[in-house]
Amino acid sequence: MMKKTAIALICSMVLVAGCGSAENPFTQDNNVEENTENIETIDEEEVAEAATAQASVETMDENTEDPEADMAKASVLPAYEYPGPELFYSVLYQYIIDECGQHFEKADVGIPCLNIVAEDESDKNDIKVWGDFWYYNYELNGDTLEMVSGGSFPGCIHIKSTDEGYEVTEFEMVEDGSDYTPTAKKIFGKHYDEFTKMNEDTEAKEKTRAQIIANYVAANNLEITQYKDYGWEPVKLPEENIDSFYSTLD
Asked: Which of these, 99, 155, 168, lies nearest to 127 by C-alpha position?
């Protein structure tokens, strides 16, 4: 009887011990699952916070544009293009831009001003245009074009008629300093007196300049009302006259 009781007691102890050891794995698994859920929750929160921070940085970048860059964009003007219908003068004006404009630093816009003294188209292979050819660089300030650089290039431009249109072949330019008068007389020849008279009429030359600017403004639908030289009062632009200002070369 005592043996049976002892055996029963031993079995009971084994069962109790077995039950105790069986409960531990379930408790550990539950703890692992809870820890995993906590880690996943933390990771999701960190990702969300990082995404929010990145979005904030991108928003700041969008809202903090360089004001100088904005001003530079706003001040960009269309390049000058001859607004008349004549291909001959289109080539001539573009030549002044390319040839004379290269001597100056770039500005918002460069506008040529051709004060033509005489033309000779008797030889289509050597059309001659005598004049005082100016190139002006301007910066835009509000509704005003302010001249920042420029210069005069008097002489005779030689142009050849081709199957494709016209081509400038030579530019005889009057020299500076003590060589100015002798080279001007040589290049202008019988047109020298006309050249001298035109140079003395500064009012007429400024009128031509203002009209060329006004036609450029009208052709590009710009809100520019005047131009200004350094140290001088602004000059109001006249009404555009693109249809009548430029003539057809026969």
From this structure: 168
Please check whether residues 174 and 108 belong to one and the same domain: yes
* Helix (H/G/I), strand (E/B), else coil: 104: coil
Amino acid identity, residue 24? N
Q: How far is CA 52 from CA 57, 62, 152, 170, in A?
A: 9, 15, 61, 66
Same domain, 55 and 85: no
Which residues span the domain enclosing 34? Answer: 1-64
pLDDT in tens, 111-122: 999 999 999 999
Give the containing element (helix H, strand E) for 110: strand 109-120
What residues have CB less than 8 Å from 166, skipping those under 6 apart?
Answer: 87, 88, 91, 92, 127, 159, 160
Structure confidence at residue 233 as a pLDDT band (50, 70, 90): very high
Domain count within the chain: 2
Q: Are strands 226-228 and 144-161 parallel, antiparallel or unpaired?
A: parallel
Task: Yes or no: say if 152 and 89 are a contact pair by the CB < 8 Å rule.
Answer: no
Q: Give CA–CA dist 242/212, Å, rounded.
A: 9
- 1 and 57 housed in the same domain: yes
The predicted model gives 178-189 an average pLDDT of 98
Q: Taking the CA of residue 62 as centre, how many other CA atoms within 13 Å lie in the half-sphere pointing to its CB?
A: 6
Of 22, 40, 64, at which residue does a domain stop?
64
Q: Is residue 71 part of a domain?
A: no
What predicted TM-score, i.e. pTM, was given to this entire model? 0.69
